[in-house]
Amino acid sequence: MRLNKLCLSRYCVLALVTVVIVTWTISFRSSEETSSSTAAAGSMTDQTLDYFLNKGALKDHNAADVQWYHAANSKDKITEALQDSSQMIEADVLLRGRDPREPIMAHPPDNDSDITLRDWLAMVVNSEKGIKLDFKSLEAVGESMALLDKVRDQLKGPVWINADILPGPGGMATPLDAQAFLQTVAMKAEGDVLSLGWTTGWSPNTDNPGYSWEMVQQMEAVCKNLTQPVTFPVRAALLPQSFVQFQWLLQQSDRYTLTIWTGQSDVLNVENLLHYRQNFSKSRIYYDLLENQMTKFKSLPGYTMSQ
Ligand SMILES: *[C@@H]1O[C@H](CO)[C@@H](O)[C@H](O)[C@H]1NC(C)=O
Ligand SMILES: *[C@@H]1O[C@H](CO)[C@@H](O)[C@H](O)[C@H]1NC(C)=O
Ligand SMILES: *[C@@H]1O[C@H](CO)[C@@H](O)[C@H](O)[C@H]1NC(C)=O
Question: Any idea which UniProt keywords this protein has (predicted)?
Fold first, then answer.
């Protein structure tokens, strides 16, 4: 009898604890969803996932399900990109190395292309996909933003404007001047997502340093007065050693997200990205990784334990 009572009360306590945990989890999750969909007056959170959700291209606010097409820098590539299963098309813009010096789709060291930005945009306006324009130099930015302005009413999908504007871990390239870039872009890109990154480097068989406190604080100082949503492109292989820095950075604003990318030859263990997947809302981290890496990542037992 005594034993039964003891067991019964243990079950009661267990049931109570379960109810409390479940209630807490549910309210915690719904409060996080509310807070990430509200924003300070005049500033905007990222509408990219809402756009694709409304199109039926995504099932929920899971940024890991957004698919990317890379370097759509030729007529053939952009034609293919417009027809495949990707939602976002990424391409590089620079000024042609010969006359006429106009914005073209090319990645350095190339300095010419079979397609100009003007013609590229003319193809994209017929589609419902989003675009991410990657600027490797300041000189192409002004004219490109003017071209973008002309087709803005016809573009249906999200527009992301990308540049590396600060020196980052192992970065050897010179970043674009942050103030000059933002002055040229911010006024013209009111509804766009700004994708603002650090220059980086990665070497095999050595301890590569991660993103330092100074680097994320510098970025926050540059971004805090912007009204646009900002995504920070971050290099996957340097992320395990930078968790607390990006935890802090994402806490600074609802407008901030991460876009995790990888160098083609970086050695990457996708299990090391689970911390990010599990500790932040799944609406706040985009994954621009190789197809086999994404497949492996999504098959990890911990992948679905996301917020
Ligand atoms: C453009 O690239 C070609 C081929 O690499 C090179 O010969 C040429 O000098 C470059 N032009 C400019 C202006 O950099
Ligand atoms: C951001 O705005 C605050 C208040 O208006 C101002 O003091 C500060 O200098 C601005 N920062 C930047 C980087 O423009
Ligand atoms: C992140 O989440 C995982 C699993 O939920 C947990 O084990 C880990 O301690 C968390 N890390 C931090 C730094 O919060």
Answer: Membrane, Transmembrane, Transmembrane helix
